[in-house]
Every structure is written in C-alpha cells, then in structure tokens.
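It is worth pausing here to work through a concrete case rather than discussing structure prediction in the abstract. The textbook approach is simple: state the sequence, then state the predicted structure, then interpret. We follow exactly that order.
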Amino acid sequence: MKRSIKIIIHTHEDDYKCEFHMAIKNNYKHMKFTVVGIPDKLIEINSEVSDIISANKYFSGGKRHYNIVRHILPEDHTWIEITVPIDGLIDRYSKIDCDMVVFASGDPLFYGFANTLLSRMPDAEVVVKPYFNSLQMLAHRIPMPYQDMKIVSCTGRPWKELDNALIKGEEKIGVLTDRKKTPDAIAKRLIKYGYTNYRVIVGEQLGNDNEAILNLTLNEAADRIFSDLNNLILIKEHNRNSYFGIPETEFNILDGRPKMITKMPVRLTTLAMMELNRREVFWDIGFCTGSVSIEARLQFPHLDIFAWEKRVNSEELISSNIIKFGAQGIDYYETDFIDCCLDDIKLPDAIFIGGHGGQMRDIFTKVYSKLKAGGVLAINSVSEKSRQEFIMLTKEFSFKQIREQVVQSNNDNPITIIVATK
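Step two, the predicted structure:
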C-alpha cells in the first residue's frame, strides 16, 4: 500500500516553512518525529519548541544531547539514546505508539540524523526545526558570505570529497572534521600535494564559552594541536599551476627509459575517446609512470581510479608523480594484474591497457566479467600485431563497437588508439 507523507521544514527564525509530499511504501505504522536542532550550549528555547517538549513523553538523541537538554525535559520522560547499529535503533523506534522528539546538533538535515529518519523510516512524518549548522556559524563569526562555499565532510569518510574540491580549485571549501582528519592533518595533506594556495580558518568550540576563531597559514595549522570540537574553511588565495595535458617532460620517468610514457597528445585523445566525463570507475592496467591515471584524475576528479603495474619500484614512481601534480586519490598497486584479487575493487566502466606484457588474452578474460555493460576498453597500439590481436579479442568477447584513431607525436612512431564498447 502507498500513501503520501508530508515533510515540514521550519527555519531557525521560524518565519516561513515549506512543505512537500512524497508517495512512499507503507513499511512502518505512522509516526511523527520532530527533530530539533540545538547548539552545543543550550542558552534558551523558543516557546514553540518548549510546547512541543511539554506535550511529549518520548525523546531521543546522543549522550551529549541528553546532557544539554535533560533539565528541560518532563520528569516522566523516556530517553532513547542514538547508538549504532542503526538497525536496532530503528526497530526500537518502530515499536513506539506515539510521537517522538529527537535532538540533533545544528541543522539535522546537514549530514544529520533527519536524513537517517527519512531514508530508514519513509512512512514517518518528519518535522525539522533546525539551528545553524557549524559551518554557517563559522562563516557568521568571520563574517564571510558563504553561498559559494563548497561543503565537504571528512567525518568518518575518506579524503575523496576534499581531494575533489581541491583539484577543481574551489574558492572556498567548508570542511567537517573528525578525530583523525583534524585541521592539522588536513593542512599537512594540502602541503604534501602542493595545494599551498589556500589558507585556513578554524572554528574551535563554536557556541561555547571558550570558542576560538583561528586564521592560519597551512604551516601554522600543520604545527598546531586543536581541540576535539572544530571545523574549518579553506580559502583560496591564488590559483596554482595546472595543466590541460601534462607535457611528458614534466613527469618523473623510468631510469634510462625516456620513451616509456604515454605522450601528451596520445594521452588526451585516449581519455577523450573513452568519454571519461561520463564514466565513474577507471582502471589503468600497466601504469608505468602513472601519466594516464594522473591526467584522468586531474581532468575528471569525479572518477574513482585504480592502477596496477608489476615493475619493481613502480609504487615509488607513481607516488612521486602524484605528489608532483597534486593528483591525490588514485589507488595504485605494485603487482601483476593477472594475479591480483579484484574482489574489493569497484567495478569499472572504463579500462585502459597501458601494458600487457604478452598477456592480452589473459587480461581480456580477467576484465570482461568485471567491465560494466556499456563500458569501454582501450589500448594504445604501437605495432600492427598488437592492434590485430586487440581487435580479434574484442570480436571474440563480443564487444559491440570498435573505434580507432591514429596519433603521431613529433617524430615518434604513429600510435593507434583503439576503444571498444562492451
């Protein structure tokens, strides 16, 4: 059975509200959650929230939230602490026959618990009464207009969102931190990969008596120890050097093998023919210097990139080039791709064979079941023999479309770029 629910969002000042309806599948009996955003130090509550609290018996939130609001709850209240695993918490919620008030930090729809309720209990009515989120508060303190700020979360998440924002050269980047990805760890990462064109503003203990706003250089931030409760805004001071097509002479290369690199015109044409702008996961088999993976990372930061190379010390070589060009976020492996376990690797919709070592058939056999339907497989062929073998295998493995383009760079031999679609 399907029915319509209504989600109501009130502003902090409560001067307007917006409503929308959504058709959903009836998984849970009807419940109403009022999710109240609060600061870390509760100074006062408005009369509407006070009336809501007085009219309810069941309340929920984290342990920290309980310490903040306990003194304003009814004496006979029942508190349900928000803990993991979430499945157990949702099951407990679903057994309650009345409405509930949930307390959350700041704006509950900003990486907050209201998102969990909407996704895990879609049959419930959710009313949100937000406070300012922490990055809004920091922008207010500076003060700084923030409508153009790119917001990323490093809270319990990998570096990907922050790395992508840096590669794209966002002017302002608001960052939510955690106990490992602290302001000093973030500053060190920017310094390591050459993003020294940013400075950092850190907000510590925002909303508390001992709050501090720190305007720092990256070096100052990297050398400082911060309180556990913080967030930050990165502000770009100038553009860093960047390339649209990195000259091969700029890469660190294999000793004594100056030609063992995909030349810039060939590299760019290959990536264009693979249409990486609309792909999600890119595999680079036989990365050598890492030029193809690095170019793809810088031109298409949204991609998840995985690269393999069996040559000894290849990790050291690609790592040096990643640092040199600020292309962090590539997962690379110094191993023979044929022997590598791929169970934990995201399935690709684009694969580039940069080197096959006479094992082209084995590579086809290994990747065909992994490549998504509609995905592409590409190679740069130097010889007619390798070209013919690739085309033969694409037909044998029933690839749908074969495209070819010949590119010659300076006095080098012509390179045939071949892209096959699964």
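Step three, interpretation. The domain at 248-421 is CATH 3.40.50.150 (Rossmann fold). Confidence is low (pLDDT under 50) at residues 1-6, 11-28.
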